[in-house]
DNA sequence: CCTACCGATCGGTAGG
DNA sequence: CCTACCGATCGGTAGG
């Protein structure tokens, strides 16, 4: 009952601090001692809140996955819209999730390989399903004559790759808002660089 | 003199085996014992050929950087060509370097953060310079009316992000040759997904 | 949340 | 290239 909106639980603090460390130094190169020091406590104390180092990574990765899925579902649920419009909205949603927490996004994108094999397989299945969602949207757009691409799978991979580079350079306090960026990315990917 | 074209020097063997391990398990999570086992020797023996674990990573990263720069210079040296054509050739060169050794490319793209601070700074300076090369090419294309984009820097980042995702899915024995892929990528990035 | 500690493993070296 | 080893550090635990 002491907890206010601005006070993170100790567990949430651990997650947040670990996210920043995992992002800059990598999961394997980050020690629990470093994490403890950053939190201002002793290494052993962390284990009253979590079971293992991997558990933190697991939570970060799967929380982000949930957000991407929820955002996509919400952005594309309106079937009355053309596929190209729904694709635009899906792109905007993806960018919004990425920019809301760039550190967690970077961990989600790069550190999943350090999950245990079982968790890693589950993670990759989710990622594959998410890619299929984009692929299907592009495929629908092709069939409706709104989009053109020799291969929807290829197009989906390229599109997501462009979006996922964002955590590498996005600064929350920059001139461009997440929505500005989303629009530019969508324009560039949909319209191309060549003058028409 | 025993060395034939198909026989790698021990040092080259170490680099190659380490590249594969660094790629799948990450630099920090790969131990010198694992590397030794993969080579069929004892851990201590590696140090007759190299000075440190980081030296291997250093060589992989900077060798790839050299290849990207050499390829770009070669692809864009003909000033009589339009900027859009030179950009296409630069894309093809980049894809060629990536596909020639996807494992080394993946290490180059993801593991540079484990270089020592001095080497890391040098590496990032090179990467920045490479990106500027693409940015300038795009800028020239915009000024010549061959390309259109609200921001050349933004366009360059997005373009390279799409290309650099390649090592994550490219299979050397797949149906598409590197040149096929380069053409498709160039088409998609230059022409866009939207029907014109 | 701390103190004190566990066994395991790390990168690297000396001497042959 | 191996054997034998170094000091340091790792993730994690017991007991308070």
UniProtKB/TrEMBL annotation, chains A, B:
Keyword Protease: no
Annotated InterPro entries: Homeodomain-like_sf, HTH-type_TetR-like_transc_reg, HTH_TetR, KstR2_TetR_C, Tet_transcr_reg_TetR-rel_C_sf
Organism of this sequence: Hymenobacter jejuensis
N-terminal signal peptide: none
Listed GO MF terms: DNA-binding transcription factor activity; transcription cis-regulatory region binding
Name this protein carries in UniProt: TetR/AcrR family transcriptional regulator
A Pfam family per the record: TetR_N
Keyword vocabulary terms for this entry: DNA-binding, Repressor, Transcription, Transcription regulation
DNA-binding segment(s): 31-50
Residue ranges occupied by any HTH tetR-type domain in the UniProt entry: 8-68
Lineage top rank: taxon: Bacteria
